[in-house]
C-alpha cells in the first residue's frame, strides 16, 4: 500500500490493512479487507485515473 501511494504521489484520505485492529463502539475487532481511499473532491478525477492507469499498466 505504501508503494502504491508513493508511485501515485497522492495522499489517501484513509487507509488500513486487512487484520488491523479497530474499535467500533465498545467492541474490538479486526479489519477484514485492505482499503486505500481518497475523496474525489480533493483531486481532479481525470488526473487521478491517469496516474492509477500508469501504475497498473507500466
From TrEMBL:
Pfam families: DUF4279. This is DUF4279 domain-containing protein.
Amino acid at each position: 500500500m505504501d508503494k502504491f501511494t508513493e508511485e501515485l504521489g497522492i495522499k489517501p484520505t484513509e487507509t488500513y490493512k486487512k487484520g488491523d485492529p479497530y474499535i467500533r463502539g465498545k467492541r474490538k475487532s479486526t479489519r477484514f479487507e485492505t482499503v486505500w481511499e481518497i475523496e474525489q473532491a480533493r483531486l481532479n478525477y481525470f488526473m487521478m485515473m491517469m496516474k492509477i492507469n500508469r501504475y497498473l499498466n507500466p
